[in-house]
Amino acid sequence: MNLFCLGLNHETAPVEIREKFSIPMENLGQRSHHLTTLGGVTEAVVISTCNRMEIYVAAEDDSLTEAEKNVKQNLGCDVDDAAHFYECESDEAMKHLCRVVSGLDSMVLGETEIFGQVKKAYQYALEATATGGVLNKVFQKSFGVGKKVRTETSIQNGQTSVGSVALDLAEKIFSDLKDSTVMVIGAGEMSRITVQSMVLRGVKKVYVTNRSFDKAEALANEVGGEAVRFDDWAKVLAKVDVVISSTGASEPVVRATDIEAVRKTRKYRPLFMIDIALPRDIEHAVGEIEEVYLYDLDALQKQVDEGQARRQAQVSECEKIIEAEVLKIKNQ
């Protein structure tokens, strides 16, 4: 049995390409199972986050070439798209997965969210009967390696999320978030993490809106905010200083016309907008409005380098742990 990984991430592909191959979380199990129906593929796990899409496949040794070919064809990528993908096999694929769950392959070095995201993707594949002896062992071992890396190094010290980095940017614009009002569009995991960071920064007021009002209420109650029905979020826009959007919508949620409608009421005050969704929630034209500061995932990538120096020094230690642990797994 052999292991193969095919993927793209924030370093190899711009947001437009990542959007094209993004897969909703709720479909990961189904997609993983579908791959096992392809020739040569015996097991599969699909991972899809805002910054990456990866496919891990187990195949019989004499079927690996067939499995790789069929997975690539199933993705439906053209020649230009293919240039953004990376691939690795066997031990290198295992090392890559360990680097991913350890936060070494993330936009924010050492971030912790990816660990939970990979665990969820694996769980979906497991429940869809897309995994077996090979991938079950590979993923379960990788989670142990990820925990070891975080325990024995300082790779996660400091800010560890895109949301936290975004809030740092907000503070550069508003100086002190304690006088700011924030609206979060979307009540998923990224929104929860980000709004918790906002509360820690002491923001004056938090509004939470979501298509499912129950989820908006639950998150608002958790952080001492106020839930807003999704049909009414545009009415709140005139009151806020910061908007953070992270939904699973397939089309933009916030459009330039929404902002234009409240500019006068807002007295043209600065509006900081952070789009951490994939596909993007906020229309590109919004960023062209004079008092609006719009950052999407790619724009945030340009900002995170400032805080990477301390963590970068820990990378070699993390790599040594991964090398040693993968060797142990290979020899078991």
Summed up, what is this model?
The chain has 332 residues and is of the alpha/beta class. The protein has 2 domains: 2-155 and 314-331, 2-Layer Sandwich (Beta Polymerase, domain 2), CATH 3.30.460.30; 162-305, Rossmann fold, CATH 3.40.50. It has helices at 15-21, 28-35, 64-75, 79-82, 90-101, 113-127, 133-152, 162-174, 189-200, 213-223, 233-236, 256-260, 297-303, 309-312, 315-331, and strands at 2-9, 43-48, 52-59, 86-89, 181-185, 205-210, 226-229, 242-245, 271-275, 292-295.
- Structure annotation, total helices: 15
Instruction: Give the overall pLDDT as a whole number.
Output: 89
Distance between the termini: 15 Å
Class by SSE composition: alpha/beta
Biggest β-sheet strands, sense, barrel: 6 strands, parallel
Strand order of the largest sheet: 7-6-5-8-9-10
User: Which CATH class of the largest domain?
Assistant: Alpha Beta
Index terms:
Beta Polymerase, domain 2; 4-stranded antiparallel β-sheet; 332 residues; alpha/beta; 6-stranded parallel β-sheet; globular; Rossmann fold
